[in-house]
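Technical annex B. To support the medicinal chemistry partners, we prepared a structural model of the target in complex with nicotinamide-adenine-dinucleotide, based solely on the information shown next.
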Amino acid sequence: MAGQWIDGRAVDGSSGQTIDVVNPADGSVVETLTLADTADVAAAVDAARRAFSEWSRVPPVVRSEALLALADRMRARADEYARVESAQAGKPIRLTTGFDVPGSIDNTLFFAGAARSLQGTAAAEWDGDHTSTIRREPIGVVGSIAPWNYPLQMAMWKMLPAVAAGNTVVLKPSELTPLTSLMLAEDASAAGFPDGVFNVLTGTGPEVGEALVSHPDVRMVSFTGSTRVGHRVAEIAAQQLKRAHLELGGKAPFVVFEDADLDAAVQGAVAGSLINTGQDCTAATRAYVHRSLFDDFVAGVARVMDGIVLGDTADEATDLGPLISRQHLEKVAAMVDRAVDAGATVVCGGVMPDLGGWFYRPTLLTGAAQDSEIVQDEVFGPVLVALPFDTDDEALELANDTVYGLAASAWTTDVVRAHRASREIAAGCVWINDHIPIVSEMPHGGFKQSGIGKDMSQYSFDEYTQVKHVSVDITGVADKEWHRTIFTNPRPQQ
Ligand code: NAD
């Protein structure tokens, strides 16, 4: 693979440097790519700018058909996508086959339909003299930046609504996981995307990412990543007053009320905290459990976590993959060590098994303080902290007590509690009696420091379009009544 996809072609990056894409499960090199630099950013943005005038004007059905053809091509290569995604991101093959790839194809089908049904308000004569209509127009070149945790899905969440609405895109995936984004660009081209509509750059964040965000022809920035880098992206975008769509970090609470189905909560906590080895912005990270259920919940979660199988990600029998890199593994382990130093107890896990990659055992902690780092900051690993509570008020207050607000779940069999929790928890998604499932039709996006804007669903068109009011005079008269507020002599000289 060349490393870059610019103007409908695979090309090498101009930096003269290469990068190894490494399988985190065993340290092997999956592929070596050339790295982009700022010259490639300029070329890709230029291609996207030139493609915009045609792509933004074609009838929506043309864009829809290109997306349907893309879905067909992805279906035909589904096994390859699943294999490459697993290898570059260290995901178990069961996860990429059952979630990442089919989810991405379903997103594509949703936006193929949605492209043809962008809605506006009805035309009307609000003042009696003018007919007003609303046009929903694409913005221009969108600079998209994606993280490594769901490389294919994040690339799709950014590209699909943007191109469906008539924008063109330059995507910078994480330099750790660019391979499925490059496959996607190749398939989009073969599916009928005109050259320049979708470009992909493999490059580093500080160099290529910042150059993309600050390019004057990029009219909108769509970023998914950490809250720290999100602040930097927002800062650069603000200097040029360009739109910034930000999907950032999370620290999801998991609230188990006293009337919850304990078995369901235990299984939900393990699945919700371990999905993608906990490298999921919506993963369950803080379990607040009513004191009457606390000991049984902790024992149940530890029992299931202890049975989780780590190992070869290509093996169907493997439950959990490694963390993305040695550096990230060391960060996760250090956070758990600091939690223990600060008084927390490791109920299970807390160790790095020697399996040849960057593995960390599923970990359950108790006894951490609400204001401690492990409860407040994103770990982004297979680590769940359990804390007891006594009253509903206390649980809801603790659930809201971080800077994040991306996702949350409440576990209860009481309909009143369920509704109260869904209203009072400040998060972009609140699950009741489950944690994680997403669908293409529903929005994903954070409150508070978890971001601004929505991915997926019709709501994402609010991010990738701008609304224009068109007002047409229907009186046909030169001498309009409102002119009297400006001048009193009504008739121009004949
Ligand atoms: P990151 O912020 O380190 O990097 C994200 C992307 O930004 C990468 O492509 C990186 O190269 C690029 N980048 C880095 N520095 C940059 C800069 N100065 N300017 C422009 N781009 C720059 O995040 P990560 O470690 O790749 O991903 C994990 C984070 O992503 C977690 O915080 C997670 O919660 C978040 N995330 C959020 C969502 C969501 O939908 N809210 C989804 C997935 C991941």
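Notes passed to the chemistry partners:
The radius of gyration is 25 Å.
The chain has two domains: 4-248+450-470, 252-432.
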